[in-house]
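Many introductory courses stop at the sequence. We go one step further.
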Amino acid sequence: MARVDTPPGECPQCWQHAHDPRVHRHLGPRVDCLQCVDHMRNGCPNIVPKKKSSWW
């Protein structure tokens, strides 16, 4: 099962599509996911900011 929470600095959609097999289960062989193709072409608009380093 995929992690529920997205790590800081990662796009939630990219994280879910990479780590949850249920997302692409409906696609046939050699069929591209339109959301993934859009992210590859246009970048990730949903990036979560990284946490500030606390040891400085």
